[in-house]
Specification:
alpha/beta; 2 domains; ten-stranded parallel beta sheet; eight-stranded mixed beta sheet; globular
């Protein structure tokens, strides 16, 4: 799928942009106050947005506001040049392909409605006032940023690596795995979230043959007593590349 080009496709009346001078420091400050509502980790999302505000004069990335629901036919990547440091969608954000954010360069994404995508690969600061729904997979990566989701997180495959997130609703997944159960929710007790450590054999049995082939070099050899050798970690970079190519992580 083609990646959404912010430079070419953000020229309609629905968009406001720092780079195109329809936003300035005063406007950005007002956007942060109006749209960022979370309180997790003393609202790390707000703090990250305020850092963007402080650095506006030297900011190489853009600040974008889209008013209304936004539908993206392909992929949406925050780090594609020129990059988006602060991205606010006042409505639902629906991405046909992969929604992807990261901390290199850092990004803050706020969606006042729900976020839907084939894949959600979140390695940045994310606040969603509705639900996060992934048709294929949802990944929460990187321990530097935090996320807050006011609704539910729903995905067939849900994977976490170091990333802390507050989920006000519930977690719904066929397989919820990772290095640790880092998605907090008061709606479900830990035993009800269905989290499985990535090192458990159950994870291997649920993954697709195609993904197991990608992870082959990380797999332990059988010690002779057990034919079900597994791995001590999932390589998240390989997992992300697999999803970008349209891979299905589950059998």
């Amino acid at each position: 799928m083609a990646t959404f080009d912010f430079r070419k496709q953000t020229k309609t009346a629905a968009w406001q942009s720092l780079k195109r001078k329809s936003l300035d420091a005063i406007a950005v400050k007002a956007l942060i106050k109006k749209y960022i509502k979370g309180k997790f980790a003393s609202s790390s999302v707000r703090q990250a947005a305020e850092v963007v505000l402080e650095e506006l004069a030297d900011l190489e990335s853009d600040v974008l506001l889209h008013q209304g629901n936004l539908n993206v036919d392909g992929d949406l990547a925050m780090f594609r040049p020129p990059g988006v440091a602060l991205f606010i969608v006042d409505g639902d954000l629906t991405v046909a392909g992969t929604f992807e954010s990261a901390m290199d360069p850092s990004s803050v994404v706020v969606v006042t409605g729900s976020l839907r995508a084939r894949n959600v690969v979140n390695g940045g600061f994310l606040e969603v006032h509705g639900n996060v729904i992934a048709q294929n997979a949802a990944l929460f990566l990187d321990n530097d940023p935090c996320s807050e989701i006011m609704g539910d997180v729903t995905a067939p495959f849900l994977y976490t690596q170091y990333h802390s997130a507050k989920i006000h609703g519930s977690i719904k997944a066929r397989l919820y795995t990772g290095d640790d159960d880092t998605l907090e929710t008061k709606t479900q007790k830990k035993k009800d979230r269905g989290f499985v450590e990535e090192t458990e054999l159950k994870v291997k049995s649920l993954l697709s043959p195609a993904l197991l082939k990608v992870l082959k070099s990380e797999m332990f050899e059988s010690d002779g007593d057990d034919d079900d050798g597994w791995i001590d970690y999932v390589d998240s970079e390989k997992l992300v590349k697999f999803l970008r190519k349209g891979g299905n992580p589950l059998a």
